[in-house]
Amino acid sequence: MKEGFRQAMAWLHTWAGLIFGWLLFAIFLTGTMSYFKPEITRWSQPEIPLRTLDTATSLARAQDYLQRHAADASSWFIELPDERTPGIGVGWRGGDGPRGFTRKTLDAQTGEEIHARASRGGEFFYRFHFELQMPYPWGRWLATFAALMMLVGLVTGIITHKKLFKEFFTFRPGKGQRSWLDGHNAIGVLVLPFHLMISYSSLVIFMYMVMPASILASYGGDQNAFFNDVFSPRQDIQASGEKVPLPAFPQLYAKVLEQAPQARVIWVDVQRPGDRTAQVLFLPDGHERIAVRRGVGWRYDAADGSLAWTERPEHVPGIIGGGFYGLHMATFAGPLLRWLYFFFGLAGTAVIGTGLVMWLGKRQLKHAKSGTQPFELRLVEVLNIASMSGLLLAVVGFFWANRLLPVALDGRAGWEINVFFGVWLTALVHALLRPGRRAWGEQLALAALLWASVPLLNALTTDQGLQHALPAGDWAMAGFDLTALGCGLFLAWVAGKMLRAPVSAPRRGARPAKAAAPNTEAQAR
Amino acid sequence: MNSKAVGLPLSYRLAVVSRCLAALLGGYLLAAMASVCLGLLLPLPRVEAVLTGMMSAFLFYLAAFIWAFAARSATRAWLGILLPGLALAAINGVTYWMNHS
User: Fold this and answer.
1) In chain B, which residues have their Cβ closer than 8 Å to the Cβ of A320?
2) Angle between helices A375-404 and A412-433 (to 10 degrees)
3) Among chain A residues, CA nearest to B39
């Protein structure tokens, strides 16, 4: 590494990108999908009916249900419907649900319990994005470290491509390796601010977990004191034993609207319901500002309906931290901005993917003439295929499983996830068995078919296909189907390029563009 | 730099491993020490100083990664990360001791 700074940075860019590229591709793709988490969940549970939004009615229905079914629980929560989530989610402490809560979904209008098919829906992809289906806390650590490597990749990439903006305007299509590089640079530069923001903000989101040294030093190990300073204090309320009926939630909600007419409450937290010490906390959706203030809302003493806390003044580091949180999660984004986030996320995925393809293509060129491929290049090729087209298959496999698995199947939500990983593993085996370019082409063609037929699948298995969703203006359902169709068409185009590749091209000599082909040819023999 | 992928001496490979460890472990130490230092010394209310320290820590980690592979030798890579890390640790130690005595 004596070649100078820029070469050293190019080396770091290349190898950090290779080693973490596969993981980052999956993290970026599932993260991009998570910008439409409620819509994916909505598609995954079509039994939940779409109702006209009426927060006060939904609150009354939820309170009524909880009073009847969980009057003795120590705490309740209510997740209110909004434009993106049609049902009411209610839960109470007790039972064997996740995190010790029992959870039910109610009709937003009638308050009847809905027995929707068991599915993790968008939540699965959201969790995978930062937990990687690994036990706590290992997945979060690994994902956070991958984010750091993304940041390293971006900064070293900027250093490597000194003439960033000049190169941005030199796109040379149809020139093989050159085009990949130009595409990689163009997409990378175009959404560079987004990339920098998204990788740095993921570090900020998990900094309490991965960089706690200063909490230990400044708070003497009393982490709770620190979190009480950062977030709004969340004291455990003790029951007095004296029974006092709860006030009607819609009345408390009216008080919220008096204070903040623009507020859109999406979460209600009830501590010690039915006791004299009960408190009801209303949390807004946070659409009105970028910087997220976690846990800040309106808390009322249930006994007399008075406001039970005073808001603390904000400080600059808190706003910056909350700002990065909000920028990453896009909590403030309306539909248009959300789509922009989605496409920027896809661009990030594409930058990682093109980088991986280039790493391999460059090195395969050298072996093009001999027709043999060293083991390590073959390994990278297999992992490239499995991590990219394999993942696309796994994701669409999840959606097919969602529609085709019997609704009454035991552990159904888990089976959807099993299908996801099963398909991914099968794609890996397929990539091992087939020559490179064939494997790409076949997997992409299958993915194209499965993605493009999602609207058909939806129309055949539910009554909410496009023929119903479009006239009804159900844009979450129709949007999902149309996006899947769009993905399918795009994948068909890529698959066509892969499958049509002229196998004889390298014999013509001069064109390095199709150099990936000879390897596949060699392996086929 | 792809020419390096084949037929490299063992010493080169070991140097690369050493640089990786310097970046990974040395970099974390430097980042953690920097965050503690800012948390203790910034003239801000405690929670603000700690938050600032934590958010800045990753920039130090990033710098350590770049230095680890930009330095002329693996030894210099380690020194360039460990020396500032230890200096910050010393400052932190003294400050902590003064605060708690």
Assistant:
1) 51, 55
2) 150
3) A214
Give the tens place of pLDDT for each residue, A331-382: 899 999 999 999 999 999 999 999 999 999 888 888 877 777 888 899 999 9
What is the maximal distance between C-alpha atoms in chain A? 89
Residues from chain A contacting residue B72 (CB–CB below 8 Å): 1-2
| Range in A340-344, A346-350, A509-513, B70-74 the model is least confident about | A509-513
Whole-prediction pTM value? 0.90
Nearest to A29 by CA among A157, A179, A146, A151: A146
- Output DSSP code: residue A220: T
Going by C-alpha positions, the residue among A141, A13, A22, A115 that lies closest to residue A379 is A22
A229-270 pLDDT tens trace: 888 766 678 888 888 889 999 999 999 999 888 889 999 999
Whether B47 contacts chain A with CB within 8 A: yes
**Alpha helices, H only, A304-435:** 316-329, 335-366, 375-404, 412-433
Q: Given CB atoms, is B42 within the 8 Å cutoff of chain A?
A: no
Give SS3 for A154.
Answer: helix
Q: Which of A9, A10, A226 sits opposite B50 (nearest CB)?
A: A226
Instruction: Measure CB to CB from residue B51 to each of A3, A5, A317 and give the nearest one.
Output: A317
Q: Which residues of chain A does B2 touch, with a Cβ-Cβ cutoff of 8 Å?
A: 14, 362-363, 366
| Segment 55-94 of chain B within 8 Å of chain A by CB | 55, 57-58, 61-62, 65-66, 69-70, 72, 92
Half-sphere exposure of B78 (CA within 13 A, CB side): 8
pLDDT at A478: 95
Q: Which residues of B touch A214 (CB under 8 A)?
A: 32, 35-36, 38-40, 50, 53-54, 57
Q: Position B71: which residue type?
A: A
Q: Which long-range contacts (CB under 8 A, 24 or more apart) does A225-230 make?
A: A226/B47, A226/B50, A229/B46, A229/B47, A230/A318, A230/B47, A230/B51
Spans of all domains in chain B: 29-99
